[in-house]
Design goal:
Blueprint (H helix, E strand, L loop, with lengths): L1 E2 L5 E8 L2 E5 L2 E5 L4 E4 L5 E5 L5 E7 L12 E2 L9 H12 L3 H10 L5 H41 L4 H21 L5 H29 L8 H11 L11
Helix pairs in contact: 4-5
Length: 243
Amino acid sequence: MPLPSPLFDRVLEIVEGSGQVRAVYSVSPVRPCYVIVVPAGETRGLRAIGGRLVAVNVVSPPPGSGDHSHATAAWPAEEDAPDLAVLILTEHAGLFPHLPQLGSLAADSAGLEEEQLRERLHEILRFLRDDLLPHAAEEERSVYPAVEKVIRAIGGATRTMAIDHRFIGGMVEELEGLESSPLSEPERERVRRLLYGLETLLEVHFTKENEAYVPLLNRLSAAERRELHSRLTGGEHGDQEEG
């Protein structure tokens, strides 16, 4: 796509989304709150990456009909870069098969001899200590800061909480199914594991809300806080569905 070099100054403020700006010969990433100034006569361009990009564009003096008629430069070809999603999903795929062993040992622990219990516990701890915890530590060092840059640009920070709700709802639904069926020992064990799992998941979920999200609500404007308070307490907006 040809890029213009019009004879007017241009100031861009990024409002929403993420993308790239071409100013003269360099291409740079942009995110909300970035301000870019390109002098008159210099090649410039703006494009979105991964969704919508919203920017305020201020030009001086106001452009005329012929200001974009001599565009000759073009966006440079995208550089090759590794697919990070494939890398991380592959690593997660290697960790997931170990997770059922946790519930399996919890179910079997009461009936195991001490030596058997120690042996299986040792294997699980080896996985947790040598594989899972280093994986978590590296995510906090490198993956999460990178993801946070994108979330700041495109939103979606609370989607992880909605995923928690999906799992909680599925576990409650499974418990409801067990309630209406004969409760033989395998079903009783499944009930125990679901209850233990719900206890842990709900404790983590509420802790995340209390520590990461609730403190942010008082940063809303007074009008936004009043509207949300009314909705949560069943006031004027409390019984209205989201549009």
